[in-house]
Amino acid sequence: MLKIAVFVSGGGTNLQSLIDATQSGSINGEIVLVVSNRKKAYGLERAKNAGIQAECIKDDQLLIQRLKEEGVELIVLAGYLAILSDELTELYQNRIINIHPSLIPAFCGPGFYGLHVHEHAFKRGVKVAGATVHFVSPVVDGGPIILQEAMDVSQARSPEEMQKMVLTIEHRILPEAVRLFCNGQLKVENERVEIL
């Protein structure tokens, strides 16, 4: 069973989808640590409620130390609103997965996170939106794409409504990507991900 760390900054609904998937046995892994860059992130409470070690860590060296101490083999960014250091991304190359609330390469990169993504998409009148799970690289939202799913959002009446719609996809494809990783079914070659 792979040891997983999940990073969160907010409510942790994607974290909850991962907790549910590990508890049901659909993911062959164990969440051994939940980390947040925000002390009051509700995701930390979700972790504690599930009996998972949860910590607020802002120092990069301490973060790397804790990951090593826990023997973490996979890091999942589940609504983590901070940029990882190059040292961390290199140390865990192709072992850090992120969920992004758009169909990359649309509405991604620096400044595009959380509700901001949906505000931009809504303002542009986007009719089809979705989510992307990708490996993390030193380029923000630039790592190889693992999974994407699209949906019709033409009926959304606000960015918040669009966000709720896209979250249903996030809660489905993030656990699936983690499941594939834990089963050894993801292969990265020439910046492309092959599902075995």
From TrEMBL:
Pfam families in UniProt: Formyl_trans_N
Signal sequence extent: none
Binding site for N(1)-(5-phospho-beta-D-ribosyl)glycinamide: G12, T13, N14
Enzyme class: transferase
Recorded GO MF terms: phosphoribosylglycinamide formyltransferase activity
Transferase listed as a keyword: yes
Keywords: Purine biosynthesis, Transferase
Pathway assignment: Purine metabolism; IMP biosynthesis via de novo pathway; N(2)-formyl-N(1)-(5-phospho-D-ribosyl)glycinamide from N(1)-(5-phospho-D-ribosyl)glycinamide (10-formyl THF route): step 1/1
Coiled-coil segments: none
A Gene Ontology biological process term: 'de novo' IMP biosynthetic process
Catalytic residues of the enzyme: H100 (proton donor)
EC number: 2.1.2.2
Any one cellular-component term (Gene Ontology): cytoplasm
Highest taxon above the source species: Bacteria
Gene3D superfamilies linked to this entry: Formyl transferase, N-terminal domain (3.40.50.170)
Sites marked Raises pKa of active site His: D141
Binding residue positions for (6R)-10-formyltetrahydrofolate: N98
Function: Catalyzes the transfer of a formyl group from 10-formyltetrahydrofolate to 5-phospho-ribosyl-glycinamide (GAR), producing 5-phospho-ribosyl-N-formylglycinamide (FGAR) and tetrahydrofolate.
Family the UniProt entry places it in: Belongs to the GART family.
Protein name as annotated: Phosphoribosylglycinamide formyltransferase
